[in-house]
Amino acid sequence: MELNEVDKNFIEDADKPWVAVEKGIERKVMGYDDDLMMVKVRFETGSTGSLHKHIHTQITFIENGVFEVVIHSEKKILRKGDVFYVPSNILHGVECREAGVLIDVFHPVRKDFL
Known about the structure:
By secondary structure, this protein is an all-beta fold. Helices cover about 0% and strands about 55% of the residues. Strands 1, 2, 3, 4, 5, 6, 7 and 8 form an 8-stranded antiparallel β-sheet that branches. The chain is globular. The two termini are about 15 Å apart.
């Protein structure tokens, strides 16, 4: 079965529900097919996206807020408008320093989010 939620050309934010992931973190799957997925992730100040890794390639846009991002063993503070890239199977995570939203794009689709 082919995965495909992008059944129209326009996806409206208001039509997608926020889902609690853990304390202080919610996500919203915006759209996906077998090869690509976009997810919004909202963080409260102080919440942490624990260090983890997955087979998916990831690129993340910081819509707003301030985040300490860890990729492999490198740390950097990133802000609104910044982007980070995570290759497949590399340990990474974030700590939210100022409440904000990340826009994650994954290849291929994160079936564990569905």
